[in-house]
Amino acid sequence: MKRGLYVGRFQPFHNGHKAVIDLLCDEVDELIIGIGSAQMSHDIRHPFTAGERVLMIQRVLADAKIPVYIIPLEDIKRNALWVAHVVSMVPPFDVVYTSNPLVIRLFTEAGFRVESPPMYQRQELSGTAIRQKMLEGGDWKQYVPEKVAAVIESVGGVERIRDISRTDE
Ligand code: NAD
User: Fold this and answer.
1) pTM beyond 0.90, yes or no
2) Domain holding 41: CATH number?
3) Most buried of the four, 29, 33, 70, 149, by CB within 10 Å?
4) 122 CB under 6 A from ligand 1?
């Protein structure tokens, strides 16, 4: 039994994340998806709530061939203690999948096995680029699974991003 942990902010969950998860479903028996910065929402880098991100991922992975546990993880102010915080919140795991340099560093120092999955079209498939497209009225939907686009539309996500980037001037 091999259980893997994949951590991300998923603001929003996009086709790059989905491609990685498809790969991981062939590598592990069970997958934990940790939704980082769970306390954040309604700001330009973190427009979606933890619950909305759970919905995006749950809908996309409804037919996953292995058990998937989706667990929101609030940030804490001490990086040195973050791995212990994560461990306290999720089921036991054997390997961590991430390409985020800080996350790699923290889990490696804590003695965990860490692997970095391949990157897919990093230029277009990035939360920053997709949020920018939403802001500018570009075609963002091609970069996220259809079910994610439906969740974003159902919560008025594009209007939210535009509203929170305005000023009162
Ligand atoms: P993210 O959503 O940007 O990315 C998630 C994963 O997907 C990353 O491994 C990333 O490299 C990968 N990815 C992104 N685009 C991809 C693509 N096109 N193809 C393939 N893979 C792609 O999330 P993140 O920023 O890595 O999330 C880390 C989380 O951990 C954050 O929420 C952060 O706050 C949290 N964290 C918290 C603390 C603390 O609280 N002290 C410390 C460290 C990390």
Assistant:
1) yes
2) 3.40.50.620
3) 33
4) yes
